[in-house]
Amino acid sequence: MKKLINESDDVVDEMLDGMTAAYPDLRRLPDTQVLVRDDAPVAGKVGVVSGGGSGHEPTHGGYIGDGMLDGAAAGDVFSSPTADEFEALLDATDSGEGVLAVIKNYEGDVMNFETAIEMVEMEGTDVATVVVNDDVAVEDSLYTSGRRGVCGTILVHKAAGAKAAAGADLDEAQRVAQKVVDNTATMGMALTSCVTPEKGEATFDLPDDEIELGIGIHGEPGTERTDVMSADEITEELTEGVLDDLDLDEGQEVVTIVNGMGGTPLMELFVVNRKLQELIGDHGLETWDAWVGDYMTSLDMAGASITVCAVDDELKELLDAPADTPGLTVQ
Amino acid sequence: MKKLINESDDVVDEMLDGMTAAYPDLRRLPDTQVLVRDDAPVAGKVGVVSGGGSGHEPTHGGYIGDGMLDGAAAGDVFSSPTADEFEALLDATDSGEGVLAVIKNYEGDVMNFETAIEMVEMEGTDVATVVVNDDVAVEDSLYTSGRRGVCGTILVHKAAGAKAAAGADLDEAQRVAQKVVDNTATMGMALTSCVTPEKGEATFDLPDDEIELGIGIHGEPGTERTDVMSADEITEELTEGVLDDLDLDEGQEVVTIVNGMGGTPLMELFVVNRKLQELIGDHGLETWDAWVGDYMTSLDMAGASITVCAVDDELKELLDAPADTPGLTVQ
């Protein structure tokens, strides 16, 4: 294994310190793997938080800042944060207006967030939740009952964060978060496995002449192993999977994301975006905004996912509202 | 080879179309590999342009937009744009106020830019140039006489772009660009080779138990092959190389960049940043701003570079000025 790390046990700890060293607007809660806005809790504002295993950077800590998240708990690599971490996160981000917890649908994340919520509710903190399950590839999977939460989560952070920043109450923040979830679908694929710092070798075997469609962001099995295909063929498989699920009316406006899994050159993501936009047009849909980049990664995995979110005037306003975070800036 | 591409000959063409499909503010000049601001030339403003081989995305096209570049020419992968492409770029970005060409120090880029400049000057376009040579690793290299231009180029784009946006004339834009060059140093390293679409295999051999220090952004030889080292040891090697070159006074403020080479997880770049900031403090320097991300990549190479730029009040104002580009947003 060759990685830019020291001891594998220290990688999350050192990453978090490296993040606060880069971004003075982030603060690490002492003796935790929780990052929050330096000014948290923000008086009079509903808190919006998330969390999950590390290895998906910039998710989630990279989306902390004005207009998006108030804080995020980082688990160990590909492991859920503990209930204690989630509790510290909720405590630190409640200004008295309550906190919206955006949870990717993995059993550990859901269970530990729920335990934490029970604890803080006893102390008087109101918490609302939304569970993101945008991955259309498979029902049930390693770590998940039902569909997995993947890159569409970023759009939930953005919309709910903007709603909270605009002064919405907890119910309203939850409503728009759920609206994004209801209108978003994602499907991914891998050219290669990823290598965790702890294991030091590929988490799954993928022969040199095969790719995997429908892969999860931890390398969980997808829908199909196939021979290597062209970028256009892969883009078509992913896009059709996503659009089949959403079943949108002609003329519908959408946000698209071509997301890199961490080891994919940006050049290749643009090649995918070219074909994606062609397919969006072929389906009679209209791209209102197209994102291309590494938003929800899987360590060094080579591959990509495609996300489509159907937007109405409300979601467009929220997605277009200012945000200032390490991983996403909108002005 | 597994890549998200179609035919290797089409990759740059399809990438550029994928970029304009994502960013309506970018326009591709017909029958070229040149991208410009959609509103180029911007009336009354000095143009700031760059260009070079593809494979370093978001460099350079990703830095086109308000406050940075007016346009960029993309060569084939790791190949200089032609003189014709540079000429089209200069033509399209001259509003009558002249154009500053930011050139990374590679023989092909310098030669072809110079040829293009001779052509457009005959037509009455004023062009000033700055040659970026921030790589401290080696004097002379494959493709280069003198030092190579690498990630520090982005700071030149930012400062010169801000100066031009503020209404400076061509001489002033060139002066601040040169000031960045004079105060910036970079050193990189690779854990793995990169694979070009055309060749389809590693461009150089790097055994599983070795890394290369001082590598160039096309895999050109560096200073040393060594056994795998820890992130802290690697960060120290790169940082000391950079700081030896700059020879800064105690108390000097600096901008630092931890740049990923394309295949490196963001997690690892933050681990490097943690140690970098410790070393900056040990040297009695003060970090005014710290950037962490993929700014100047080498396709799918795993590795990183460290850039340090000494800043005064003028450079701080320019680097802090608003910019709105696909690859860098400052608000």
From TrEMBL, chains A, B:
Residues 7-328 form the DhaK domain. This is Dihydroxyacetone kinase subunit DhaK. PANTHER family: TRIOKINASE/FMN CYCLASE, TRIOKINASE_FMN CYCLASE. Its EC number is 2.7.1.121. The keyword ATP-binding applies. Transmembrane segments: none annotated. One of its GO terms (biological process) is glycerol catabolic process. Pfam families: Dak1 (PF02733). One of its GO terms (molecular function) is ATP binding. It comes from Halonotius pteroides. The keyword Transferase applies. SUPFAM superfamilies: DAK1/DegV-like.
